[in-house]
Amino acid sequence: MPTADATDLRRRATELRRFAHTLDTLRVHDLHLRTGPTTWLGPSPSACDADVRALAHGLSTSADDLRRTAARLERRAADLDAAARAAALAGIN
Amino acid sequence: MGLLAYDPDQLARLRLAMRDALTELEGTVCWSLDAQVAMVAVKEARRRLAQQWLPLVDHLLDADPLAGRALTALGFDDMRNALVHVMHHGYGWAVQPDPREDDPTIVTPEEARALGALLSQGDLDVLLDDPGEMEWVAAQLERIALDPRLTAEFTNNCEDLARVLNSLAERRIALDTPSGSGPVTVGQIDLVVHGLAAVWSTHVGARERCLDPAVLLPQADTMTPYAQALLLAAMDVDPTTFAVVAVQILERWLIAAGGTGQGPSDAFQPGPNAADLLFARLIDDQQAAAAFVTLAADEPAILFTTADDPALAQQVAITGTSPAALAAAAAEAPVTAFIEWFQRNAPYLNTAEPTYPDGWQTFLVDMVAPWTLQFTGLATWHFAWTPPEDLLAFVIAQPGAADRLAADAQAVAGGAVAQLQELDRLEPILIATYLGLLSQLTVEQQVADEEQRAARWAATLMVVNAFVDVVTLPAGTATSVAMIAGGPVVDSVIARWEPDPAAVRAAAEATSLATQTVVAAGIADALHAAWVQHGQLPANVLPPPRPNPQADDPAADYLRDVTTWLLALDAAGHGDLADQAQRLIYLVLNPWDGGEDMAD
User: Of B100, B120, B141, which one is at a domain's C-terminal end?
Assistant: First the structure.
């Protein structure tokens, strides 16, 4: 049976994965489809296009970081569960 | 300030998309401590959209687009706003000032495309009146040339490169005259041409491979020869291709200049024309000059009747025919063809209008100087059309030619020595003949004063000295001309006969005979030394006679003494040695005509 700490770690991991998914599906990722040279041209439009792509990239990177953090939390939860099972088996014997 | 072009409908859709994205970002929250770093990215995206980009889009859509005078005032016709210009005229886009300055180091495909289109179709007079714009265009072209994709965008949209280059060429012709002036300089035009040449080189792959000349220049039928020359001179192509295309351009120029039509404009303006541009480049590229003169041998007029400055053409000929540029066999055709051309045209060169400037006479000497050996029995040239003596006589008969040959002694010596080294077999008679010929050319020509005579004398001796350690005289012996030039005989005779400017004497042949006597005595001395060295004659036996500078007729006296010496050698059982010496010495100092004529 999972420990309370392991359950909490898994809940936090789930929350981070959900938020990562949210970041991945933000509409800001689609903005570059409209900031290019079919809409406008000039120094500012070029800068806007580059900036929008950079923002989207930053959000994707953040989402990846969140997933990595979630995976780490899930591994720690699994370790806690394994330790609890080992302790239980030792008590029976 | 730069300009910004936009499609209002598309921009309105972008505003909606930005607003939706912003609203969504404002509702994107995660309170987990593990997500706070990610929340920083969310907040930054929100801030940038809300404070920077959405206000810009709102501002553009809320303001009236610029038009007419306002656009012109902001430099709408400036090449630097080529992209905005094209989008406004071609696609009906709106235009506003852009608060941000353009970064000229970044060229987008759209900008490359627009620059090509505007150069091809726009008002080039506007460009040609603005030095800053010219420099900006040149810099953009250089950047475009570095990227094959940008190059493709540019060339695909610059449909009339000939128009661009013709305009630049016409302005350059007008500026490159003594009275030429304008807002832009020749240097600024050359910068733009260089940029276009760089782009075109990238487009046709001129740097990576040798090209068919037919594809090297665009729109050959509509581009003027001057414009083609400008472009070619600025391109980075291999020397042979450059030469071939240069010849084609000048053939077109000659046909146009000699035809009944209007003719090339550069032919009737003072200042450099197409040929001058090409020749200036050829002078700096020995390989290309060599390839060019080889081709020009078939039609020397493309070299000598095209340039505004004949000195440039003459320098191309000298550079291209020099031993450093062409091997002896390859040099024959251009050198002989060029002399023959001047031979044929000499009667007209100084009388026709416009007068062909003087200077070609000494140029011919400069060109021939390293090849004098080829006009003797040591020649490897074949002289298919005109005998060598006729060619050389024509060259040396020109005013100032003999003095020039004396001044060119270093080139004469260097060329002769190098060509002697390439010969498999050296006949001493031929070497003597060559030295004799040289003496004739420099010393026996008319001289104005003793200074001149002294210079020619020094030149002859310089050539003789250059043979030191190079020429091996009679077969099997190690006798060298070093011994001729450096022996005690020469020293003593020179000391007596060297012309003295302070004591001018009238005897016209004296210097010539002195040269011949010195050379003959030197040869005899050298042969004797060689015989002793090789055990063919004991030392101190039958030494050759010495000339007597104090005699009334030193040459005749020496001839008499040397004949006596030869007879003594024969009587002592050395007939073979006597024969060898006789052949050589009598060629230099001829006993049958009083020693006055050299062998030729």
Answer: B100
